[in-house]
Design brief:
The structure is a single chain. Helices cover about 50% and strands about 10% of the residues. With about 350 residues, the protein is α/β, with parallel strands linked by helices. It has three domains: about 100 residues, Nucleotidyltransferase, domain 5 (2-Layer Sandwich); about 100 residues; about 130 residues, no CATH class. The chain has a five-stranded mixed sheet with strand order 3-2-1-4-5, with helices on both faces. It has a two-stranded antiparallel ribbon with strand order 6-7. Helix 9 runs antiparallel to helix 11, helix 10 crosses helix 13 and helix 11 crosses helix 13. The chain is globular, with a radius of gyration of 26 Å. About 25% of the residues are buried.
Length: about 350
């Protein structure tokens, strides 16, 4: 039926389904097992299937789309206010149907298998890096109890510890030396795994032309470019660069009323991992710009902002600017072109622009 909406509350083994033929009314409820869900949806006439964007939702969305249904994934945070009183599977289905009536809620795009392949590589790499950091901190904490302090930096810790273990005169018990050796081996194994994932990302990047264009932007490397392709998908769904920056949580949170407009800190909405990569990339832009004798206009603006507002605030502002440039380069299909500084004209008080501009 044309106006039929099927709401599915996803789970591991038991799925709650509500079928609605008109807004505000649920015609029937069904509680199915995992094996029964696919055949049940396949037997239904073409309809709008709505689900929360949660674990396994993209898998089911692709499967239901292949059956001819129009699938919409709703953000869970937008559905929760529509769940009244106690939280149950049936209440969640009702909340999804009510949230779907709100046209202001934007559905989450369904990820393809190639996108999820990229996101999986990034998530595994992040998990291994976190484990590596935990092992390094364990070594530092254990040896600090014996009065041994290592300099900052994770790249040299294994060499220092190995030298310490081989030195018989250090005040470290023999039993602890064996355990430290095992930790060093684990750290090195994790580093090999991380480099292997980065090689896989490089191979996938060579097959995606847009990654090369994104990497032409200062502060955008392999990780940031591939993560954007995997997590964002289609940039055409953002009507402007500001919408893209808002999606990444890099625009100020606003609390205004009447004639008073109050703008505060960034909203921190969207994906934390993407925002972290962009801010770290912005920090690299600031550090690299300090060593350039003739920085371009983008880097000059970043350095001036850092001088006035400090490093941290400037890094967030540069990340915001990078997000807007990313949208422009991604949407236009043209690589980034640096823009020289303004040249001083005949009148010292007037600055004349030189040729060159950001890609549009």
């Amino acid at each position: 039926m044309k106006n039929t909406t099927i709401a599915i509350d996803l789970a591991k083994s038991v799925f709650e389904i509500g079928i609605s033929h008109r807004p505000g009314h649920i015609a029937s409820h069904h509680r199915l097992s995992r094996a029964e869900l696919g055949p049940f949806v396949a037997a239904q006439p073409r309809a709008t299937v709505i689900m929360e964007a949660c674990s396994s939702s993209h898998h089911w969305a692709r499967k239901f789309q292949s059956l001819g249904h129009d699938v919409k994934l709703l953000p869970p945070l937008c559905v929760r206010p529509y769940v009244q009183r106690s939280k149950t599977d049936r209440a969640d289905v009702k909340g999804m149907l009510e949230a779907w009536r709100n046209s202001a809620i934007q559905p989450v795009p369904v990820k393809s298998e190639s996108q999820q392949q990229l996101t999986s590589l990034h998530r595994i790499r992040s998990a291994w890096k976190a484990t590596r950091t935990m092992r390094i901190n364990s070594i530092r904490g254990l040896l600090r109890e014996f009065g041994i302090i290592f300099p900052a930096g994770a790249s040299t810790i294994c060499g220092y510890v190995q030298t310490l273990i081989e030195n018989a005169e250090t005040a470290v018990p023999m039993l602890l030396r064996d355990l430290l050796h095992q930790l060093v081996l684990e750290i090195r194994e994790l580093e090999v795994r991380i480099k292997t994932i980065e090689k896989h990302l490089e191979a996938l990047a060579d097959q995606t032309p847009v990654v090369e264009r994104l990497r032409s932007i200062p502060g955008v490397g392999l990780l940031t470019a591939t993560a954007l392709i995997g997590f964002v998908g289609d940039v055409q769904r953002f009507p402007s660069a500001r919408h893209f920056a808002c999606y990444l949580g890099l625009t100020p949170r606003e609390h205004s009323s009447g004639m008073k407009r109050r703008v505060g800190r960034i909203s921190k909405q969207g994906d934390v991992y993407l925002r972290m990569l962009l801010i770290h990339g912005a920090r690299s832009v600031l550090w690299a710009a300090q060593s350039k004798s003739d920085p371009d206009r983008f880097r000059s603006w970043a350095l001036e902002l850092q001088r006035r507002r400090g490093h941290n605030k400037a890094a967030v502002a540069v990340a915001n600017k990078m997000a807007r440039i990313l949208w422009s380069v991604w949407k236009s299909g043209k690589p980034f072109e640096s823009r020289p500084q303004l040249a001083v004209g005949p009148d010292p008080g007037v600055r004349m622009p030189l040729r060159g501009d950001f890609a549009r």
